[in-house]
């Protein structure tokens, strides 16, 4: 089952994000089978990073939450909020 993991950074946390970015990228690569899509939210001006969006495949909501909790940004306390919901990939799905 697919889940959308939508994370919003805490205010004024760009330095914390940048400090943990190498570990974040390694985490994404190491979990490449489960992580289908990943990328940062950016500011309205097209600059800076303000959060993250991941589409993950997991057996159930508990497994998706466990994966998200192990993410280096989450461990570092970067996020003000995290929303995890079941998600259906309709358009652009390479498996369809």
How far apart, in Å, are the first and last alpha carbons?
Answer: 14 Å
Q: Average pLDDT, to the nearest integer?
A: 95
Q: Uncertain segments of ≥5 residues (pLDDT<50)?
A: none
Envelope shape? globular
Write structural notes for this entry.
By secondary structure, the protein is of the alpha+beta class. It is globular. The mean pLDDT is 95. It is 31% helix and 35% strand. The protein has a four-stranded antiparallel β-sheet, with helices on one face. The protein has helices at residues 14-30, 61-69, 72-75; strands at 2-9, 35-42, 49-57, 79-87.
Task: Produce a short descriptive summary.
The chain has 96 residues and is of the alpha+beta class. The chain contains 3 helices and 4 strands. The mean pLDDT is 95.
How would you summarize the topology of this molecule?
Elements (H helix, E strand, L loop, with lengths): L1 E8 L4 H17 L4 E8 L6 E9 L3 H9 L2 H4 L3 E9 L9
Antiparallel strand pairs: 1-3, 1-4, 2-3
List keywords for this structure.
4 strands, 96 residues, 35% strand, four-stranded antiparallel sheet, 31% helix
């Amino acid at each position: 089952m697919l889940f959308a993991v939508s994370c919003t950074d805490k205010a004024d946390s760009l330095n914390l994000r940048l400090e943990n970015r190498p570990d974040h990228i390694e985490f994404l690569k190491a979990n490449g089978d489960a992580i289908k899509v990943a990328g940062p939210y950016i500011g309205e001006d097209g600059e800076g990073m303000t959060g993250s969006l991941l589409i993950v495949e997991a057996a159930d909501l508990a497994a998706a939450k466990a994966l998200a909790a192990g993410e280096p940004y989450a461990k570092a306390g970067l996020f003000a909020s995290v929303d995890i919901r079941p998600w259906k990939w309709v358009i652009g799905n390479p498996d369809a």
